[in-house]
Structures are given as structure tokens and as C-alpha cells.
Amino acid sequence: MDEKRDLKTVKEEIIEKLEDVIDPELGVDIVNLGLIYQIDLDQDGACVIQMTLTTMGCPLTDLLADMVDNALQPVPEIESIDVKFVWEPAWTIARMSRYAKMALGIH
User: Fold this and answer.
1) Is 94 helix (H, G, I), strand (E, B) or coil?
2) Exposed/middle/buried for residue 39 (C-beta within 10 Å: 0-12, 13-18, 19+)
3) Going by C-beta distance under 8 Å and a sequence separation of 6 or more, which residues neighbour residue 78?
4) Which entry of 11, 18, 23, 67 is 20 to 30 Å from 75 by CA?
5) Alpha-carbon distance 13 to 19, whole Å?
6) Phi first, then psi: what are they for 47, rounded to 5°?
7) Among the listed residues 75, 71, 86, the one whose alpha carbon sits nearest the alpha carbon of residue 38
8) How far is the C-alpha of 94 from the C-alpha of 33, rounded, in Å?
9) Confidence (pLDDT) at 1
10) Residue 56: which residues within 8 A CB-CB, separation 6 or more?
11) Phi, psi of 26 (to 5 degrees)
């Protein structure tokens, strides 16, 4: 049987998997866009992702939640996934990584 991985290692894998979730409108992943606010994983494998969207009322809410869910399925420590959309603090381009700003031509 494999030795249990520590929480830091699992969270790093979660972030890597979330970098595969590409915002369909912007073509950049949700991590570099700064849409991920918090990742919680408890001892029972319940994973809660708090994220936001670039605009309130974005029609992609359900699609992105499904994409996050699908991306995290291969992580063996996760038993359940709950994607919670939060609007405070409001998202701004300041949350974007340098990579995302370059990809979108924002200087």
C-alpha cells in the first residue's frame, strides 16, 4: 500500500490539475487568471474549491465547475469536490499572473 502523501503535496497536485482548466472565453487557465481563491481538503477527502469568475453573472459557472470537478478526479486523496463561487473580494486583473497578462496582451 502506498504511503499517504502529505497535505502540501496533495494541494500542489490540485493546483497543477487546476492549471489544466482553461477558461473557454479567455483561453488561459483559471489558476493564472487568479480565479482560485482557496483550496481546502479535509482528512475525509472532501475538497472545497473557492473560486470566482471574471464577471458576476458569467454564463460559464456550471461549465467551469464541471471542468474543475473533472480535472480533480484523478487525485486519489479526493473523495468529493465542492466548487463554491465567491464574489468577495471582487476579481481584478491585478490577480492575474504575469504569464496570463502576457498571454492576453495586458501590460
Assistant:
1) helix
2) middle
3) 14, 41, 45, 47, 72
4) 23
5) 10
6) -110, 125
7) 86
8) 9
9) 31
10) 87
11) -100, -20
Q: C-alpha cell of 100? A: 496570463
3: confidence class by pLDDT, cuts 50, 70, 90: low
Reading the block at residue 94, the C-alpha cell is 491585478
For residues 103 and 27, what is the distance between their CA atoms, to the nearest angstrom?
9
Q: The C-alpha cell of 26 is what?
A: 479567455
Cell of 31: 489558476
Q: pLDDT per residue over 65-95, tens digit each? A: 999 999 999 999 999 999 999 999 999 999 9
Query: Domains in the chain, please, with CATH?
Result: 7-95 (3.30.300.130)
Q: Which residue has the cell 474549491?
A: 49
